[in-house]
Amino acid sequence: MLRRLVCLVLCLCLPVAQAEIALPEIGDAAGGLLSEQLEQRIGVTFMRQVRQGLPVLDDPLVAGYVAGLGQRLGRNSGDGQRGFSFFVVVDPTLNAFAGPGGHIGVHSGLILTTQTEDELASVLGHEIAHVTQRHLPRAFEHQQRMTMPTIAAMLGAIILGAYGGGDAGVAAITAVQAGAVQNQIDFTRQNESEADRIGIQTLAAAGFDARAMADFFGRMHQASRFSAGEQLPAFLRTHPVTLDRVAESRDRAQRMPGRRLPDSGMFLHMGERVRVLTASGPAEALRYYEQNAMPGEAQAARAWRYGEALALMRAGRIPAAGERLIALRTEAPEFLPYQVAQVELALTANQPAAASALARADLKLYPGNQALMILLAEAELRTGHPAATRALLGDQAHQADPAPQVLELLARAADQRGDKIEAFQMRAEYHVQNGRLELAMEQLRRASKLQPIAFAQLATIEARLRQLQDDLEFERQFFGRRALTVN
């Protein structure tokens, strides 16, 4: 029963002993326990620790697809001003979670288990509702007064149950707040019902089929009849599915319109891409396509052929992969996954000039597409044009949440250009994004000692060092010196 809290957040680990740290109490139910500003700051730290401890799938095409799906739902959630971010965790289990600050994670296993884009959107809509209804802050406010260390210990324990799937999280929560957690159970049942209701409304408003949530829940409930305890998928342990819940979802959906926007086929293709990228190696990925027949339905068959081409590419079978991609692109010349795959194939074949030409042509159809921009930046770097890489990606380094690949490419480009100070700065930001603040600060200190260095550049570095020191102190104070590394 305690695992019903897990659906609220996958958060940072703190040893239970940390609950003894003497931090001030931070309010009561009337005053509001967790302000939006504090939640946002916790959310930034949350994502750094997620990247430090969990295997995030940083493929820009998959990440862009999931983010696009989520943002479309977010715009129709009734809280369009709130910022959301979405990311994929490489994990075969069927799960999704909402963390602080609007950060929503999806396990790769969920993408491979859902049968339609509407089903995947229904799960995202449910998690978005947890965020918009502020279920995590409300859960803490429900406890009247709770010290910050106790909250941190409770959140830290939850990750053990959410990701590890065992009893460790339950034991840790019990050790910290056994009585308080027991009192939360009815409250979290209400949260799940509210997330279902609002999630279905969001799903319909965004143009998806509102019946998808009931369909997915129904299939999960049927599967749960043959499983028990730890054999249940993580989604069923953190989002308990009952016949009543299925019936309520179906009843709500009947009052909503069906899908109003055409399915682009991206869902099936991204599923095959996830399958290949999360396989243990090229041989396993290729074995799947050798042992499983191509589907009969046309769109599913094209997605299967796309996955096979990616698997062949990863296995180094360049000519065979090229033949399949040429055939696919003949059928759908402007379909983004095929265009990206052809650029990737050229890079895999060590033909960066060809990759650059392909990417530039494709960007005329998809201007600003992140996957194509990153591939073009890599191609330009390999052809000895680091200034072009910097021109392509430089602005992204100053955005709120730059992709780690972008920062890594900019650091390499600075090295090629002989700009050691900028190379250190970009590596520092790369470490920040991956939750390694101390390594980032070391990179900046090394940059500050290089000569010659302009006064303005030194001032920028010193200001960033102060900011990261403040972030590090917040992280240590709130979450303890070390964050959990999940193996």
Mind explaining what this structure looks like?
Helix content is 65%, strand content 3%. With 487 residues, it is mostly helical. It has 3 domains: 2-254, no CATH class; 266-332; 410-487. Helix 4 packs across helix 7 (168-205) and helix 17 (370-382) packs antiparallel against helix 18 (386-393). The two termini are 25 Å apart. GO terms for molecular function: metalloendopeptidase activity; zinc ion binding. Residues 1-19 form the signal peptide. Zn(2+) binds at residues 126, 130, 192.
Report the C-alpha radius of gyration, rounded.
24 Å
Report the structural category: mainly alpha
Which percent bin holds the helix content? 55-70%
The 3D shape can be described as: globular
Distance between the termini: 25 Å
The domain tally reads 3
Number of helices: 22
Mean pLDDT: 80
Enumerate the strands of the largest sheet in spatial order, edge to edge or round the barrel.
Answer: 1-3-2
**N-to-C order of helices and strands:** HHEEEHHHHHHHHHHHHHHHHHHHH
Largest sheet: 3 strands, mixed
Function: Functions as both a chaperone and a metalloprotease. Maintains the integrity of the outer membrane by promoting either the assembly or the elimination of outer membrane proteins, depending on their folding state.
Protein name: Putative beta-barrel assembly-enhancing protease
Keywords: Hydrolase, Metal-binding, Metalloprotease, Periplasm, Protease, Signal, Zinc
Active site: 127, 196 (proton donor)
